[in-house]
Amino acid sequence: MLQQKTLRQPAYLSGTGLHTGNRVNLAILPAPENTGIVFRRTDLEGKPEIEAKIENVVETSRSTTLGKGNIRIHTVEHLLASLLALEINNAYVELDSCEPPICDGSAREFVRLIQVSGIELQAAPVEPILLSSPIEFTVGETQMIAFPHDRLKISCTSADKKGRFTQFYSLEVTPESYVRDLASARTFCFFEEIEGLIRGGLIKGGALENAVVIRDDAILTTEPLRYADEFVRHKILDIVGDLSLLGRPLCAHVVAVKPGHGANCELDRRILRQTLSDERAMAVFLPPPERPAPSKRTVTVEDGKGLDIDDLHQILPHRYPFLMIDRILEVQPTRVVAQKNVTINEPHFQGHFPRKPIMPGVLQLEAIAQVAGILTMRSAENFGKLAYFMSAENVKWRKPVVPGDTVIIEVDMLRTRGKIGKAKGVCKVKDEIVSEAEVTFMISDPLD
Questions:
Q1: Quick one: CA dihedral 273, 274, 276, 280, positive or negative?
Q2: Which of the chain's ends, N or C, has fewer CB atoms near its CB within 10 Å?
Q3: Helices (H), 21-151
Q4: Are the C-beta atoms of residues 187 and 211 closer than 8 Å to each other?
Q5: Which pairing describes strands 188-190 and 212-215: parallel, antiparallel, or unpaired?
């Protein structure tokens, strides 16, 4: 039986964040059993905490960003990779800015901190995640596959859009192999990307001292490459960091082609969905009553994916005449955009009003609440659950909605705490706001 581990004593580090350029002081502290990895912003009032879990990922452009409400912690993957690979299950990570130090662009300094601090064994057990079947998906040129395996192994192919510097590397990740073969691999970028990154407000702390720059066939760096295939090794390092957001060690063979943080995190979500489904199946020790086999495929809520009415029927419990959305147009980490086509056949127009049909404002509010429920389904732990509408605040109805209108419902998550969430929704017709509200809802198991 594997046992949980934490640091023997606190470890401290100061430096500069890669993307923000902010000076930051970081401390990694021992934590009790079953704490997990928890980030704590000591520079903010109340020292808010964010757990290193996939449901708290809010941005995956060039790095992995965790967030709760308005609180953000950027570029967490190098530190998290080191904690996972060195088998640290419980730790508090305190920092007085929004991004850990980039150091030399690798994870080597984080490894040193953990090794100097020492590792302490804890009594509580660790239960690894075991896959019951392969998981596979493709997004653009990125392909991710996870096969059942008895330990963590990662095989990765890395290349840019032009096929330059194509590299392949495969490694079974252990504490020893991580320190020897991955931790020293530095972050890198292509020269033509730099201008766009700067315009996007990124790499404010970037320099040749903490990144490798590729310009045409030349490699710009202050020291020789640490590995002949350093780029693909760093990609694997990033995958390890993002896999730590599962919250438990993973036993699987991950095969990645042109991976990125977005795809890495989507793999996490799919692994957790399978795990949750398997755990529910194992909990049932008596066969359920026979039911007709479902006619529809399993539907999941994924970033960048839309949902049609058949998908909505499998996710939401609402049915005619109370399903208030027809299609999901866009899903993002903290945002969902939906569409409702208003027709004269809506049953409420019989009495609201017979000679002047107007969509009731409370039904627009219900549409916002239903879209907020869709947003909660991104989290693997909420898969198969329901979002119960609790309250509404700052409700405003600005213009009437009539038959023939297409209502676009935009909902942004404001914050979540445990099973309670709060979101802001706006209904628009032809880009004009017709209603808006802030809704609070609770996640709960469905009623049988």
A1: positive
A2: C
A3: 77-85, 108-117
A4: yes
A5: parallel
Phi, psi of 392 (to 5 degrees): -135, 140
Please identify which of the residues 253, 261, 313, 348 carries the catalytic annotation.
261
**Sign of the C-alpha dihedral, residues 48, 52, 57, 63?**
positive
Per CATH, domain 3-123 is 3.30.230.20: yes
Q: Cα–Cα distance between 12 and 14 in angstroms, integer? A: 7
Active site residue 261: yes
Which residue blocks in 284-341 are alpha helix, DSSP H? 309-315
List CB contacts of 325: < 8 A, sequence separation 6 or more: 312, 338, 339, 340, 367, 370, 371, 374, 409
Q: Which two tokens stand for residue 336?
A: 């969902």
**Looking at residue 74, what is its pLDDT?**
95
Whether 352 is a known active-site residue: answer yes
- The pTM is what? 0.66
Distance CA 111, CA 106 (A): 10
Kindly report the CATH number that applies to the domain delimited by 309-444: 3.10.129.10
Give CA–CA dist 352/137, Å, rounded.
47
Output phi, psi for 100, to 5 deg: -65, 160
Helix-, strand-, coil-residue percentages of the chain, each rounded to 5: 25, 35, 40
Q: Say how far apart CA 344 and CA 325 lie, in whole Å.
A: 16
In the chain, the amino acid numbered 124 is A
Domain residues of the chain, as ranges?
Answer: 3-123, 129-279, 309-444
